[in-house]
Write a structure and sequence with these properties.
It is built from 8 helices and 6 strands; from the N terminus they run ααβαβαβαααβββα. Strand 5 and strand 6 form a beta hairpin. It has a 6-stranded mixed β-sheet, with helices on both faces. Helix 2 packs across helix 3 and helix 3 crosses helix 8. About 0% of the residues have low confidence. It is an alpha/beta fold and about 230 residues long.
């Protein structure tokens, strides 16, 4: 079965089947990217049921919530894994010296590029495939995400096992399987990023309204597809 056929057939697969295919196909050249949101902890739990040893990495921007850092430690302990932290080449102080204070307010895209996109590119250059927790109903940019697709931005295969899941399904899985999750979710944070760019969401707001509030921005740039 060629890759085009896999892309089509995988749309009928359960998340665990997508993960199993990825682990069998790419071995040590695949890794799970995790920001430790609800979807990501679900994938880690599923991966642990499919594969004894698997790689997880996170983009540590140096501006994550304390609750996120604590969750990483709890996940490592529960699943017996070591999460790789990928960071910007610039410390927060170096970034301020070079670009001025509070870059995230003046140029959030540039801040995301320095602290997320560039570290991700460096990591993905070492891999043949990566796994993400994105869902199609999260943002318009993710609406056409395939469960298995070729990532033209980074030049490797991308697995989105939860692409067709809803938030209800994610939380049902977390509760039924007692998966550790970020307590900020219970304080009005459905989507959690950096401390400077994340606020609680009010009732009736879009689930990602708390990310880069007040700006025409819903993505950090990791999952934006290049336009032809």
């Amino acid at each position: 079965m060629n890759f085009d056929q896999i892309e089509i057939v995988s749309e009928t697969w359960k998340p665990q089947e997508v993960l199993r295919w990825g682990f069998e196909r790419f071995g040590n050249s695949i890794a799970l990217a995790s920001s430790f949101g609800a979807e990501d902890v679900v994938l880690i739990d599923m991966a642990a049921g499919v594969q004894q040893h698997f790689e997880v990495f996170t983009l540590d921007t140096d501006f994550l919530f304390p609750e996120t850092y604590d969750l990483i430690s709890r996940i490592e302990k529960k699943y017996g894994i070591q999460v790789e932290r990928r960071q910007s080449q610039l410390t927060p102080l170096q970034q301020e010296e070079q670009f001025g204070p509070q870059l995230w307010k003046r140029s959030p895209n540039q801040c995301c590029d320095l602290r997320k996109v560039k570290p991700l590119k460096a990591k993905l250059a070492e891999l043949q495939a990566w796994i993400t927790g994105i869902r199609r109903d999260q943002t318009p940019h993710r609406r056409n995400a395939g469960k298995i697709e070729f990532d033209i931005n980074f030049g490797l295969v991308k697995l989105n096992p939860l692409a067709d899941w809803t938030s209800v399904q994610v939380w049902q899985y977390i509760r039924e399987n007692q998966v550790p999750y970020n307590p900020l979710h219970e304080l009005g944070y459905p989507s959690i990023g950096c401390t400077h760019c994340t606020r609680p969401v009010a009732q009736g707001e879009d689930l990602r309204a708390g990310r880069w509030a007040g700006l025409q921005k819903t993505e950090c740039g990791l999952h934006l597809k290049e336009q032809p």
